[in-house]
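In practice, a research group might receive sequence data for several interacting partners and want a quick structural hypothesis before committing to experiments. The following worked case mirrors that situation: the sequences arrive first, and a predicted assembly follows.
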Amino acid sequence: MKILVCISVTPDTTSKISFKNNDSEYNGDGVQYILNPYDEWYALVRALEIKEQTGGTVTVIHVGPSTNEAMIRKALAIGADDAVRINLAPINALVTASLIGDYAKDKNYDLILTGKETIDYQTATVGPMIAEILGLPFISFVSRLELEGNLAKCNRDIEGGIELVSVHLPAVISASKGMAEQRIPNMKGIMTAKTKPLQIIEPGMTLDPRTETVQYTLPPAKKGVVMFTADQLDQLVKTLHAKEKLF
Amino acid sequence: MSQNILVVIEAIDGDVKKSALEAISYGAHIAATWSSENCVLIIGQTDKISVLGRCGAQKVIQVSNTISVADSQAWTNCISEVASQHQASIIIMPQNSSSKSIAGRLSIKLNAGCMIGANSLPVIQGNSMTISRSAFAGKATAYLRSNAPVIITLAQGACPIKNDGGDAVVTQVNADSSPSIKVLEVNRITGKTPLPEADLVVSGGRGLKDPSNWGILEELANALDATTACSRPVADAHWRPHYEHVGQTGIAIKPSLYIAIGISGAIQHLAGVNNSKVIVVINKDPEAPFFKAADYGVCADLFDIVPKLTEEIKKIKSK
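A structural hypothesis for the assembly, expressed as tokens:
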């Protein structure tokens, strides 16, 4: 089984959010970056489990600058065989997906995995875009993935439930929580990751991102919590009913 | 401008959701600005077509055969064909697990911009459309601009539902499904509003101590006609089903009211509920970080407070 896992890098959940260039760009100065949890914990680990069961290779691919290579090495330390970095500061999902799709189009991957979304912009669009570029089926939000030969059985998270879907590979599948359990890289993994192949590719095309971020704003500060005591629940309910008009 | 709008919605078990009506109304708003036509493609059967007209649908195209949402290729092909027949350059969908599987595909297929999760009406200037959306787990708002053609998906409440539209002309279309995908089974809760669409949410955390204690929380939810949710440790311990888990690795929600009971409010949990309009926190720990993100709080033992709160709500509702 030849598997490609798309990995992205996002600010750590606890990062301070601020902006630069007239508030049109996220300010990453001094921010701790992490591998996007859906990509690392679920998509990558499930790919490794499949490889352990059936053999094959797991390649990780990332669109980003050289400063992200430490994150790519982490994915190699967790167990990926090799890595590809497309050397471009990511602009948006359309550009990222187009570059990955262009790379993958003549490589005959059996399975392409992505996280269900990145935790910063949460658009969930890179996976379906790659699938469309490659003309492959796409199954989203998969919390359980089992292979029977080249048939993938997926539990797909839907609103208030689960859908069981089967798809013939090759396919693109996005991972949600449950597909695998997070793996912490061990010492041997960290040592071997240093010598695993990491190929750097310059983007072979200029792409129109089609959308532009005009501005970011921060939400108004919370007014602060209004506390009620155990004896004032009638007042709390009155506030929610009469003032906030919630029910 | 003579570029038409195509709103894509689905009927689930014959029902058309509020979010679908909001999407139609959103389309009607753009169509009115451009003096163009607001077309609605509906996948799945329903007898509520007249409602779509009232919300501002001028033409309704019904897909007469069943294609699963999991079959994103079939949907994409069907939508792009209908879009080209109707000269639509703006495609609008409510944001849900279906549209999130399709919007990206459509954007490639139609060489269109892709704007996910618009949370208010767009600013329209000629051919360009600026929308606002939540980013960084609700910690910021991003303003995105794109020229038509563009795909826009809508967060809940992005647009008030119109009620002054007329009758829509209904036509039928057939869609080809891909042979490689089969839906084996669908397990969906019935009789309750699914969490992503819920307006009122009552959520429980480890403070409830044991799954057998969920009764008091469910009674509160029933009194409010709210949907129940939970924190990550509760879902991980299988006290509650996975689809109730809100937070960073669960689902992000945007209700009017979020009542958090016995949840400390870790940043990963807040990432899923930051966009709630009003947050009420019940926790006996005065240092619980959730109080900092709350609008209203009660610092007391939840086993004492929650049943009393339920009684107060019943009282005010029976008036």
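Before designing any experiment, note the following. Chain A touches chain B through 80 residues (CB under 8 Å). Helices of chain A lie at 37-54, 69-78, 93-104, 126-134, 187-193, 233-243.
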